[in-house]
Amino acid sequence: MRAHQIMTRSVISVTPDTSIVEAANIMLKRHISGLTVVDDSGKLVGVVSEGDFIRRSEIGTGRKRGRWLRFILGPGKSASDFVHEHGRKVSEVMTAKPVTITEDTALAEIVDLMERNNVKRLPVVRGDKVVGIVSRANLLQAVAGLAREVPDPTANDDHIRGRIIETMEKNDWCPFGLNVIVRDGIVHLSGVITEERTRQAAVVAAENVEGVKKVHDHLCWVDTMSGVYLNSPEDDDLAKAG
Description:
Blueprint: E1 13-14, H1 20-30, E2 34-38, E3 44-49, H2 67-73, H3 75-86, E4 95-96, H4 107-117, E5 121-126, E6 129-135, H5 136-146, H6 155-169, E7 176-183, E8 186-193, H7 197-207, E9 214-222, E10 229-230, H8 233-241
Parallel strand pairs: 1-2, 8-9
Antiparallel strand pairs: 2-3, 3-4, 5-6, 7-8, 9-10
């Protein structure tokens, strides 16, 4: 399998001038752990993630180094830490020049890149524009839904996946972080919903795409006020059976 067969196409991005507070609120609202950073032309310039908010002055978690270590590291490192802990804009905390992949990157290479660079997500680019993102969650979904003896995805499966995503993204009820995996006409839907009626709409939308044989629902419901989440009824049943 390759990146385009599991990636999340609806990528949420911010700009280098986006405030730290706004970026954090977007991640909380969308239930995602990272954002791509693009300039005014749409070119990828960085990635900001939950890890970039761990060492912050607001919550008293800034690095505390002894005088001897500060002397060894030099003033430059202390200055960089200060910017990261007190910066007000995304550009001041993001990872610049992030590792990227293309739509044709094989999953084995994706896993290797994640491990080698100690990252949890990789932007998928076409030229210098972001067209998707592959996270550890996407890989987990692929394993959970497709680790059985079935044929590899075909061109028709890719066409079905594209049609499903296109159909759902036209609607305001489209699940956050929608991911669609198709093998041999069998569809696995995952993402986050905040309204239970959205679940049925998503399943029906997938079922109406020509070539779909069956739809598996892995959509997670999240309460936006409390943060409480529930797995899909199908996943709950599988967990009980296991």
